[in-house]
Amino acid sequence: MKKAKLKPIILAGVFLLGAVGLILYIVSLFYGLFFILAAVALYFLYRWLSTDKETVIVEIRKFLKNLTIPVIGISAAIVIGAIIMLISGYDPIKAYRALLYGGFVKNWHISILNATPLIFTGLSVAFAFKAGLFNIGAEGQYYVGAMVATFLGIYLGMPPIFTIPIIFLMSGLVAAAYNYFPALLKVKTGAHEVITTMMFAHIARYLSSVFIRWMGGDSAGTHPYVTNPILDANWLPRFKGLFPDTNYRLHTGILIGIAVAIFVNYILTKTKFGYEIRAVGHNPQAARAQGISIGKNIFRALLFAGFLAGLAGVNQVLGLDHKLFENLSAGYGWNGIAVALLAANNPIGVIFTAILWGALDAGGQYMARTVQISNSIVEIIKGIILFLIVARYIYSWVGNRIKRRKQLASEGAK
Amino acid sequence: MGGFFSIFNEDLLVATIRLSTPITLAAVGATVCERAGIVNIAMEGIMIIGAFFAVVVAYYTGNPWLGLLGGVVAGALFSMIHAVATITFHLDHVVSGAVLNILSFGVVRYLMVIIYGHPGTTEPIAKGLAEYKFAVPLLSKIPVIGPAFFNQTPIVYLSFLTVIFFLIFLKKTKTGLHVRAAGEHPLALETIGVSVVKMRYLAVLVSGITSGLAGAYLSIENSVSFTEGMSNGRGFIALAANISGGWTAIGSWLASLFFGFADALQIRFQIFKVLPIPAEFFIIFPYVATVLVVAGLVRRSRPPKAVGMDFMIEREED
Amino acid sequence: MRSRKSKDLLLETKNIVKRFPKVLANDNINIKLFKGEILSLLGENGAGKSTLMNILYGLYKPTSGTFLLEGEEVEFSSPKEAIRRGLGMVHQHFMLVETLTVTENIILGNEPGKADFIDYKRAREEVLVISERYNLSIDPDAKIETLSVGLQQKVEILKALYRKAKILILDEPTAVLTPHEVEKLFTVIRKLRDSGVSVIIITHKLEEVKAISDRVYILRRGEVVGERKTSKVTKKELANLMVGRDVVLTVHKEKKEITAEPIFSIKNISVKDAQGLMALKDISIDVRPGEIVGIAGVDGNGQSELSEAIMGLRSLEEGNILYGNEDIEHLSTRERRRRKISSVSADRQRYGLILPMQITENLVLGDHDEPPFSKGINLSLDTIHSYSEKLVEDFDVRTPGVDVTAGTLSGGNQQKVVLAREFSRDPKFLLVSQPTRGLDVGAIEYIHSQILKMRDKNSAILLISLELEEIFSLSDRILVLYEGEIVKELIPEETTDKEVGFFMTGGKAKE
After folding, report:
1. CB contact under 8 A, A391 and B98
2. Is C284 helix (H, G, I), strand (E, B) or coil?
């Protein structure tokens, strides 16, 4: 009985400590980490009270086990990256020191700014993947979201408490609608979404140039460059107001990203929609035989994926740039794919992999500036990390080799 | 309106052939690859690798022919990563392809900074393959199609040979028959003693070579330098061409010609400003065409039965 | 008959062991094959017969053990070497490339012609020559996908003979054949023996062993449990060896009078198959509460189209489906299931279960969006969990927990999960297709008893099965399906399997 009373209090503690720690950590107050660790410890206490000791131990072990492949992959990539740097004549120790210091300490706010759009596009790709679909054109939906956000940001003059949610919602919906055609073609004709969404991404890319010109960009030259700025009132709130020491550009989009990731995770694991998406993703024929419509779920998955990718665009326009730049190879789509694959399509995992990606970029720039080692090495390290983590079979292959050798050795001993 | 119709002339056909060349090469590679059962969406990245190395080799040796070879070899080697990942390590084909595309952007940018000191566009090479344009005697004198097909640059001719070669390869040769069986019923092939793994490696290699060649075309024949992102979705359009062409070499070629035509047409529309609308509306035309053609034709023909599917025999205790 | 001098010894395995990650498939197998004999390997599903043959054929590598071919120790690292040494194998699932022609399939891997070019003309002639020599006439230019199953098997045999096979392994060769085709196949096999080819037949059918083979090894759970001359062994003895205990081949079924009105009626339906050909022609079936109606027939006579039409996965060209007093032919699969119609699919791994998902999730598949399993948009995870634990208990699913994925279960337990889901929703009408395919005797008995339990609970049951024995032991009425038509209705107590078999293969009633 005492336990039952204690549980909600502990849970509230978890959320409070977690949220406070998270915000502190985000604004570069790194002692926030202690709050986060305390929240994690409390959470396991809560689990212990609600079940039994063994289950908790199993859960912790499973959690740690899931981390092994990423840890091995990242370590191996760092080693390979070091070798490449040595070959190219750089000092890897100096490089990594700058990379880590820049990405995780000095320019942490840039890492967060880089990570935020990737959380959205990563969630977009991951969600579609759960339904067995590959939203390779997330970049296109990003542009659509960004265009709508810019348009509304310039013209929607109301109190921000109304406009910001409206802009997020509308931009997301239009970006979702942009994925309507690939979904329709997939259901009606069987045209593969890899091709259709990719082509739609190129189309959106070029349409954004037209849009920028229309919204105040350079109308004479071949490049329109940039739109007029959005209204000041429509900017996303920044952390600066609350934490005066933090970088002035750091905005609250990251919190929205994390909230959306938690929401997506909830949809996938706890609701009937998520259940149907996963069922169709794993075995569409069995799902259909038991009365789950495949077509309906293709629409749901691709439209929601479009919605999420669209939010990435809104986040950049309202939070960071406050205008839309012409940027024909921003790479949010491809990086979103990388982030989703790294996280094995787990929405919560996406938060962390997006931050890793963002930190590598930020650290790379810092490294280039301070120790004059080209930040393009980061692109290679990213590629290798991705490959070593995605190709999970390598590990079971190596593991089996070792097991087999041991078995043979023990048989030989007999 | 006289201006509008004046677009449809001999030059349009010449441009169609030129613009379709990289797509044709990659599409034929995609056909062989998918007939063996491997989906290769890494062709976009392989093209970029091929284009970059072609320029690098041509830049240092001063010889565009060696550049061509360099592009092909680089493309072939890069494609082998896809083969190892999908065939030996049983990674999902689409995932591996996506990862390779990402890796290609990184590799090229890194090497560009190391070699040229900056990202973006490389220094131009001294002499591009375009200077080796030659007319086939007699044939080039045929009205209309003569100049388009028989007065061209080297890789354009190579693309014709590629189409013919793989048309015969798939239809008439033993290896071609094995490749087709590997994509339809791999276990059937394995049980009569032909290695599915070998056939699939071979097929991926073919797609690597042709995509590398397509890349070399972009950088050292159609241009004299390499620019990041210069493949511009052509690897994906080539996939679409393969599908629209019903997984045959000749079909892939015809579909590629159509996409090349769409591109040639939009450039002309842009230049002659036939409609008073922004140029971007013309630029997107080939992409729209690709979507429509794939959507319209995809049901017409049947993909290889085992395409995209992993092949694994538990021969040992793996 | 044939003397067993050691010089006639063609093939011998020595202590073959094959261990897979989860099971010991072959445990110390020693068998011998003599020249010019027909040898059977008899065993249940999962006894290790196919594994052993795949080892011989070079597809698998044995964990330990060796085999001798004509007295010489050999180890094949690929089928290529096995083929070169005179082994040929006809797999249960045919190894034919459907889009290629008969000739292309036969020559695949051994194509005649200079360099890398195929000499199609010569290939065609060679195919004609061997098909004539063994009386296996076939159109060399036909595409495989246009051929019947029996003809495809001919192509498979020709494929082995083209490679000059001295040992021909046939894996479950009669599983997909009509009785008439089986007779023809046996004739071919005997002819092959007389021309000096040794034949190994892998089977789980006792009749087959008796009808065709000279000698038989019986396998159980990866071990050889006996070797007999077929002329000197009874079916009963074989059955006991195969299963390891006395088998009751028929379940106890109470006879009862069924007087109720039909609850489920199919009225004159016609359905097209995936190729657009008419697969069901003007079929009518009535099923009454508490009654099991068995559909007997050879595979490919419209069974899958019938079950798909009933569940709303395939549209009707004509006709109606009546459920109670309601026309349901326009309803979606979901709507039909909501009206307490249940279905056990013929292929549980493809259509019945989602293997990468948990048992809990599989047990509510299709009912997940209705109370008590969901509330608003949320799933009621606790309810689903306790429901699953009850079902796993009730249906005796052997599993470490309800949270493991369905893919980790054995075939029998997977089928129990499907049964648990479909039987526990109080279905008024129940469609059961091939409920025991690929299962061992223990699981078969259990599943049969569960189906009879549903009959006692007054469900109307339509049973589609390719196993005549199953039809006989469960059905109250038997309908024979042949080429998309119901050609005969019979009462099991008043007929014989011979008679049913006669109608199954297109025999006309002599009325």
Report:
1. no
2. strand
